[in-house]
Design goal:
The protein is built from 15 helices and 22 strands. It is α/β, with parallel strands linked by helices and 463 residues long. The strands form 5 sheets. An 11-stranded mixed β-sheet has the order 1-2-21-18-17-4-12-13-16-14-15. Strands 9-8-7-6-10 form a 5-stranded antiparallel β-sheet. The relative contact order is 0.16. Keywords: Hydrolase, Magnesium, Metal-binding.
Length: 463
């Protein structure tokens, strides 16, 4: 993935494919974790607490689960659950497991190799569950902790059922209103206001871009969050409904991009709904489908940009079906970039040591080959080189420990799995035209910006 640079200033929009904003006539936004920013740690702590209660009170899990404590660092976005083995996996772009954890403990290299060395992790296999959004953090934490309880003798269902039950308990939090009611009652604790974002949206609107919301949230929740995050900062519009030409709630993404569901029109004052027939005109809706929206907008897919935070729900589906341009909001990206900057001096030491090691290995190889060339073989010199390589290896190991301390203490880098890109990074590269840490990173650029990727350097070009 390539970042955009302008002069000497590094910008915070990262470009995979050309995106000419002059050609974009409509910009669609997911709401949660995209248009509306959450305090992720607080929100996931709340979700975690409610899911524990549902597991015990609704699904009959043992009360020991209520004593578990939230640990935000235990899981990071982009991991995979192996539902059959009860493991959390950090997977490379090639589907190979680079790091695995069972319960709260890391799996040894030998065990990991035995389980996964000859396997490619395929997420179409129902025995795997991806944790690709910020909303999935509490899911992964609870899974790891309850697997740990199971290994300590607490009676809980088998690993695959546990994964399904946690998802069910999360769904209950959303469907019974317990989660959203607490968010609405304590907005400042869970939701981040961004005055700059509102000004940017108004500028884009003034420049002729149609602004659209497509969210899976219900109208009442959408209304409350947008009144809190958008309305107080508007300068040229009375309310968020004036700013956004079309708002589609309960869209059921990714079904919104695949199935021809009917639209319901919502009266924004009473929240009453009626069947909608005819073209989609400015207003608030429920349900519907992307095909009709695009047709009634009178636009080509390449003239619509959609921003979301979910690779599969927001980006992959519409990319494959309608060819809309895509932007992914990766909330942990800012922390990842800061960690990369912090680790830079250590990385330079590692690079230098690796170069030193390569020279020694070349010398060793030349000496070893002297036996096959009929030349004299200096065993003492070979031993000396082996000793030097061991010394360099020890230094590299120490520096690698320092390097890892800059990132997540359990899983390391978000976008890398070992030396390779992570599966999460690979999905971003494949399906997002651009990506960024927050929506305002994109909108701080002119509505006419031409985003270009830097030429990718292939291994044979490094000469």
């Amino acid at each position: 993935m390539i970042h955009l640079t302008k002069g000497v200033i590094q910008m915070s929009v990262y470009v995979n494919r050309i995106l000419n904003m002059k050609k974009i006539k409509a910009i669609g936004f997911d709401m949660d974790y995209t248009l509306v920013r959450y305090n992720t740690e607080n929100f996931e702590r709340l979700t975690y607490s409610l899911v524990k209660e549902n597991l015990v009170k609704v699904l009959g899990y043992p009360k020991e689960i209520l004593d578990l404590e939230f640990d935000f660092q235990l899981v990071q976005q982009g991991l995979v659950i192996d539902k059959l083995r009860g493991n959390l996996l950090h997977v490379s772009r090639f589907g190979k497991v680079k790091k695995a954890q069972h319960g709260l403990g890391p799996i040894s290299f030998e065990e990991q190799n035995e389980a996964y060395a000859n396997r490619v992790i395929d997420l179409s296999d129902e025995s795997f569950q991806s944790l690709d959004t910020a909303f999935s953090v509490s899911n992964g934490i609870l899974y790891a902790q309850i697997v740990d309880l199971k290994e300590k003798g607490v009676e809980v269902p088998r690993y695959d059922l546990l994964a399904d039950h946690i998802k069910e308990a999360i769904d209950i939090c959303h469907s019974d209103g317990s989660l959203k009611s607490q968010v609405k009652a304590n907005m400042s604790e869970y939701i981040i206001q961004d005055e700059k974002l509102v000004a940017q949206l108004e500028m884009y609107k003034k420049c002729g871009k149609k602004l659209i919301i497509i969210t899976n949230s219900e109208y009442y929740y959408c209304k409350d969050l947008l009144e809190y995050t958008i309305d107080p900062f508007l300068k040229e519009h009375k309310s968020w409904r004036d700013l956004f030409e079309i708002t589609i709630t309960l869209s059921s993404k990714p079904r919104f991009f695949h199935f021809k569901n009917h639209y319901l029109r919502i009266d924004p004052e009473t929240a009453l709904m009626t069947n909608h027939e005819g073209p989609i005109t400015p207003g608030v809706y429920q349900g519907g489908n992307a095909g009709k929206l695009q047709e009634d907008l009178g636009l080509k897919g390449s003239e619509i940009l959609y921003l979301g935070d979910h690779i599969y729900g927001d980006v992959l589906s519409l990319k494959k079906t309608f060819g809309w341009r895509t932007a992914l909001v990766v909330e942990p990206l800012e922390d990842e970039i800061e960690a990369i900057k912090k680790s830079e001096p250590t990385q330079k030491k590692i690079d230098s040591l690796m170069q030193e090691k390569e020279v020694l290995e070349d010398n060793l190889d030349d000496l070893e080959m002297s036996k096959y060339r009929g030349e004299s073989y200096d065993k003492d010199e070979v031993s000396k080189i082996y000793a030097k390589i061991d010394k360099v290896n020890n230094s590299i190991s120490k520096e690698l420990e320092n390097y890892r301390k800059c990132f997540n203490p359990h899983w390391g880098e978000l976008m890398r799995a070992g030396q390779e890109e992570s599966r999460f990074a690979d999905q971003i590269e494949k399906y997002a035209c651009v990506y960024m840490g927050r929506v305002s990173d994109l909108l701080e650029n002119s509505p006419r910006t031409y985003f270009r990727p830097i030429k990718r350097v292939l291994p044979h070009e490094l000469i």
